[in-house]
Amino acid sequence: MAFYVYVLRSGSTGGKYVGHTSDLPRRIQEHNNPDHNPRKYTSRNPGPWVLIHSEVFESRAEAMRREKYLKSGAGRKLVRDMVTKPGGP
């Protein structure tokens, strides 16, 4: 089974979200459904949420490590560069 790390950007605010999942299309749909879990970040902040980057990993542990990195200081800079540079890194 493949696991994905993904970066979403809000089409209305430019905000970013980093997460991981085993079913990327389903997860993006959930992020764009404010009723899915109204307490979550992407439900409380306006979208539409658009996929701007994704990576595939063979294990959940690898995906979680990459997600954690992208949420770190150095990783946030990389994500910021993904948003500002066409085509990503």
What does this protein structure show overall?
The protein is an alpha+beta fold and 89 residues long. It has helices at residues 24-31, 41-44, 60-70, 73-84; strands at 3-10, 16-21, 49-57. It has a 3-stranded antiparallel β-sheet with strand order 2-1-3, with helices on both faces. The protein is built from 4 helices and 3 strands, in the order ββααβαα.
Average residue pLDDT: 88
Radius of gyration: 13 Å
Distance between the termini: 26 Å
Strand order of the largest sheet: 2-1-3
Low-confidence stretches: none
What is the H/E string? EEHHEHH
Strand content: 25-35%
Query: In this structure, how is the largest beta sheet organized?
Result: 3 strands, antiparallel
Oligomer: single chain
Total number of strands: 3
Q: Helix- and strand-based class? A: alpha+beta
- What's the helical proportion of residues? 25-40%
Molecular shape: globular
- Count the DSSP helices: 4
Task: Offer a few descriptive terms.
89 residues; alpha+beta; 4 helices; 26% strand; globular
Question: Brief overview, please?
Answer:
By secondary structure, the protein is α+β, with helices and mostly antiparallel strands. 39% of the residues lie in helices and 26% in strands.
